[in-house]
Specification:
single chain; alpha/beta; Polyamine Oxidase, Chain A, domain 2; 7-stranded mixed sheet; globular
Length: 497
């Protein structure tokens, strides 16, 4: 209505375009931009296409490689995961992507895990499941049963999100999403430490130090002071029934872009400017590639890249009054080193490498330890005759550490090595840096995907956020407010069946 008044008062100086009229007759937006082509950004493009239909132009901006924190490195003409590497069987969006995209599950290769405290292995997996259970009970009592029940209860509640999203419901904040799944309990779990919650549950301190802490170190590079909710997600990911994508997990991202018929623009977004106010504002994105700057105007924008201060996005926001709030917190540095060489089994108490039985080594939070985990890894393409390298052979290992390994540290872990490839990730939020959850809605028609990482960071969490933002953008565009932030959704969903 404001635009019609503007035309009338200024004697038709401004002529309405077809896209301006489209906003008032129920038509979809003409152009949508997604900034970032990791799993979150590419899944968002896919879901936006599903909801807004084939006529909308969807541009996805990415300054680096498609996949973001899903990435591989090459060793001896084989590709290995250097980023996100495992997916849980309950991750229904990721499962659905695999089926729609015609991808395959990677063949699993068995291997045993042990926990190292800097001096000796304090827990060793065997070939006998019942023996492993007996050892857990003997050392930790019923702590592992209490933990299992706690994680299962949380995952059962979290699985409600798939029903809500299948029925088209969306949430305008991470808090609203969590509250719809687990009430105030889930919100409180983002504010209380994992160790505090587990001790209250009756889990022993010894179990927390020797089992929970190593899992947090390998998954998030952080300790047991992280919030209970992200800890529960991490523990669910440490269970069985894990899988990965044949050819590399990053294939999901490139295939989603293709399925969405999105335009990939390999360019650095330098600014996002609010161009018009009103019920349907528009935004101008300026991006730069090879010293050439280009600008485009969009009806909807999804920012699918971290906006925290210690992440160099290179994006400035202009024309917003008041200014957009700064995102709380910072991202945590973790280093992934892909090393081709011979593991020094003597360091772990096995002078004869032929007797070393473990493929994965987790570590406790001991001050003298300089690495979080070390694991023999398999390539992303596994042939039928593939076998894992034995410790006496030169293998490929992934070592997680809080900082790049120094030469003396490499010599401690490896007898000798042929190559070291280091990826210095800002992979996850630093969960001790804030208790706040970033917003989902930055402005009317502009959304932030990565805020959900501050509840928990995982491929599936990004996919859930992508679906939520696509639904949220669709309902807000069409003024279907009854589909946003509804209460008592379990009852509503049951009555709709």
């Amino acid at each position: 209505m404001r635009q019609f008044m503007y035309v009338f008062l200024f004697s038709f100086v401004h002529v309405l375009s077809e896209s301006d009229f489209a906003k008032f007759d129920g038509a979809p937006p003409s152009k949508i931009a997604v900034v970032g082509a990791g799993i979150g950004g590419t899944a968002t493009a896919h879901f936006l296409r599903q909801h807004f239909g084939p006529e909308v132009r969807i541009d996805v901006f990415e300054k680096n490689s498609v996949g973001g924190r899903l990435a591989t490195v090459s060793v001896n003409n084989q590709e290995y995961e250097s980023g996100g590497s495992i997916i849980h069987s309950l991750n229904l969006h990721m499962q659905d992507f695999i089926q729609q995209l015609g991808l395959k599950y990677r063949k699993s290769v068995a291997g045993k895990t042990a926990v190292f405290n800097g001096e000796e292995f304090i827990l060793e997996e065997t070939d006998w499941y019942l023996l492993d259970l007996f050892r857990l009970w003997w050392r930790y009592g019923i702590s592992f049963i209490r933990l299992q029940m706690w994680v299962e209860e949380i995952m059962e509640k979290f699985m409600r999100i798939y029903k809500y999203q299948a029925h088209g419901y969306a949430f305008s904040s991470v808090e609203e999403l969590l509250h719809s799944l687990g009430g105030s309990g889930f919100i409180n779990m983002t504010r209380r430490s994992l160790s505090e919650s587990l001790l209250e549950l009756g889990v022993s301190q010894r179990f927390i130090d020797e089992i929970i802490s190593p899992i947090m170190r390998v998954n998030y590079g952080q300790n047991i002071s992280i919030p209970a909710f992200v800890g529960a997600v991490s523990l669910a990911g440490a269970q069985a029934n894990l899988w990965a994508v044949e050819g590399g997990n990053k294939l999901v991202c490139s295939r989603l872009l293709k399925l969405a018929k999105a335009n990939l623009i390999q360019s650095q977004v330098t600014s996002i400017e609010l161009r018009s106010m009103g019920d349907y504002p528009q935004y101008e994105i300026t991006h730069s590639s090879q010293d050439k700057k280009t600008s485009e105007v969009y009806d909807i924008i999804v920012v699918a890249t971290p906006l925290q201060q210690n992440v160099d996005t290179g994006i400035s926001f202009q024309g917003f009054e008041p200014d957009l709030p700064e995102m709380p917190g910072s991202y945590h540095q973790t280093v992934a080193s892909i090393i081709h060489g011979y593991l020094n089994c003597s360091y772990f108490g096995y002078p004869d490498p032929k007797l070393f039985p473990f493929s994965s080594i987790l570590t406790t939070d001991a001050s003298e330890l300089f690495f979080n985990s070390a694991a023999s890894i398999c390539p992303v393409n596994i042939t039928s005759g593939f076998r894992r390298k034995q410790p006496q052979e030169a293998g490929v290992y992934k070592v997680f550490s809080p900082k790049p390994l120094e030469k003396n540290e490499l010599k401690t872990l490896f007898k000798s090595y042929y190559s070291v490839q280091v990826t210095d990730w800002l992979a996850y939020p630093h969960y001790g840096s804030t208790q706040g959850l970033p917003p989902v809605v930055l402005h009317d028609g502009m959304y932030y995907l990565n805020g959900i990482e501050w509840a928990a960071s995982a491929m599936e969490m990004s996919s859930v956020a992508a679906k939520n933002i696509a639904l949220l953008a669709y309902h807000r565009w069409n003024r279907q407010l009854e589909m946003i932030d509804q209460k008592d959704l379990m009852h509503k969903v049951k009555t709709e069946l």
